[in-house]
Amino acid sequence: MYNKYFEVNMLKKDILSDLKIAMKAKDVKTRDTLRTLDSMIKNEEIKVNKREEGINDSEIVAIIKRAIKQRKDSIKQFVDGGRLELAEIEKEEIAVLEKYMPTQMSEEDIEKVIKKVLTDNEFSQKSDIGKAMGVIMKKVGDNADGTIVRKILSKLLV
C-alpha cells in the first residue's frame, strides 16, 4: 500500500515494473489488469496534454479509483444476472488495483473526522450532506472511499 505522500510518477513506475514481472511470470490476470490500467493512464495523459512529463500520482490514484468503481458496478450487474464466475474475475482485478491505492482509513477513523467536521461547521440536517461531503472529502483525501463516507454521514445526520 502507498502512503499519502507520493513522489511524482513513482506510482506509474511501480505499475509498469509490476506489469513486466507479471508478464515474465505469465500471470495473465495481473498482466491484463495492469495493461488496462496503463492504457487508462496513457489516455488521460493524452487527454490533458501531458504525454511528455506524465500525470502525477494523485491523478493516477483517481484513475485507479475510477477503475475500481467500474469493476464494483460490474460485479453488482453480474451478480444480479447470475454470472458469478464473471463477478469473481472482477473481484480479482479489484484486488490487483487496490495494491496501488493509498492506505485507506478505517470506518472508525472516518467517523471521527465526520463528527469533528459536523460540530465545527454546525451541520446537523440531511440537507447539509452535500456541503459536509465537500469538507470531509478535502480532509480525508484519497484515504477514504466517498461511498463509505456518505454512508456514515447519512447515518449521523438526522
Q: What would a concise description of this structure say?
A:
The chain is an all-alpha fold and 158 residues long. Helix content is 72%, strand content 0%.
Keywords:
single chain, 158 residues, mainly alpha, Hypothetical Protein Yqey, Chain: A, domain1, Arc Repressor Mutant, subunit A, 2 domains, 72% helix, 0% strand, globular, disordered N terminus
Characterise the protein shown here.
Helix 1 (10-25) packs antiparallel against helix 2, helix 5 (107-121) crosses helix 6 (129-140) and helix 5 packs across helix 7 (146-156). By secondary structure, the chain is mostly helical. It has 2 domains: 10-98, Hypothetical Protein Yqey, Chain: A, domain1 (Orthogonal Bundle); 107-156, Arc Repressor Mutant, subunit A. It starts with 9 loop residues before the first helix and ends with a helix. The chain contains 7 helices and no strands.
Furnish the topology, listing elements before pairings.
Elements: H1 10-25, H2 28-47, H3 57-80, H4 84-98, H5 107-121, H6 129-140, H7 146-156
CATH superfamily of the largest domain: Uncharacterised protein YqeY/AIM41, N-terminal domain
Counted by DSSP, the helix tally is 7
How many runs of DSSP E, i.e. beta strands? 0
Describe the main β-sheet briefly.
Answer: none
For the termini, the CA-CA separation is 35 Å
CATH architecture group name of the largest domain: Orthogonal Bundle
The backbone outline, from C-alpha atoms, is globular
Assess the beta-strand content as a share of residues. Answer: under 5%
In the residues, how many domains can be counted?
A: 2
- Find the structural class using helix and strand composition: mainly alpha
